[in-house]
Structure formats: C-alpha cells, structure tokens
TrEMBL record:
This is SWIM zinc finger family protein. Residues 55-94 form the SWIM-type domain. It comes from the Archaea. Keywords: Metal-binding, Zinc, Zinc-finger. It comes from Natronosalvus rutilus. One of its GO terms (molecular function) is zinc ion binding. Pfam families: SWIM.
Amino acid sequence: MSTYATDRKNGIDVESIERRDVRALTECMTVMEHAPEVAGADGLFLVVTQSGKTYTVDVLDEPRCTCPDAQYNLPTTDGRRTCKHASRVTYETGMRPIPAWVNRDALESQLLEATHVDGEPVFAAGRVAGDGNDVETDSDERGTTRRAIADGGCDRPADCCCVGELPCFMCWRAGFRTPADESAREADE
C-alpha cells in the first residue's frame, strides 16, 4: 500500500491513506445514481472522470468497477480491492466516512456537493486509531450515528459479528449486504 505522510501534489494533508483514496477524494469525478444507464438498479452508479471516461460502479455487495485498474490491477498484494472510482462512490454517498484528519479544503468540490446521488458525504468524528479495532463514530444532523469502517483487511467494522447467511447489524449499517467471510475475520484477529 502506498501511504504518504503528506501528499503535497494533490494538496491533501493526510497521515496515512492509500493513493487511490487520495485520488478519489481530490480528482474531479461526477458520480450519478439516476443516470439512464444505471437508473432503477440498486447499488449501481455511473462515474464520469475528469478525462471524460465513464465507468459503472456496483456497490451492492463488494464494490466493483468496470475500469481497467479494477480489471487488471486489483486486488493488490496488500489486499486493496477497490479502485478510485468505487472509493469515490462510497465516499460521496456516505457509505464510507472521509477520515477526519483529511484537509477538507483539498477535497474535490463535487464530492462535497453530492448533487447526483441520494446520500451525502460523512466525515468521521475522529480517526480510526490504534490497531484497527478502535472505531469512532459521528452523528449527522438527524442524530443518526454513523460508524467509521475499520480496515481489518476485509473492510468490516471492528465489532463485526456476522454468523450465518446474513450480515450482522454493524456490517449492514456500514453498507455491506453479505456476511463477512469467517476465515477473513479470523485472519484479522
């Protein structure tokens, strides 16, 4: 995983973030949930990049994208499974919180506006700290508590307790629609 103490090229001040996430937060992209190509399909989004290329992102189960990066480079050897387009969709819709320590002035303006999606970006109240098992929460204007996702290799909440064929409440709330793979959870512990 590529991490940067400070990513000055993109103008985003971070402590530790993967380069695809930096690009998802700073590059100009338009995320559309109701475009004709994806209208009426649960979990499908159309992403138009700053170069004008268009990709379809499916976030219903595990985020997937039609871009060449997702097709040829993922998953990475360090476990990264999502491209910048899928990350952008999860950030812009609030499925994944934007780290609290990210310089908000460096974020791409369309990300913060979330004009073409039903959700809205969420900022974590604090950073995901410690060994990946400490998760802080934030409340939105309606008082709904949203959880920051601890990246334990399978991107599940730290208090994941999936058993059987359905995801646990904590995973459902974080946007997962399938249960965590038990072997992946055990490997994280």
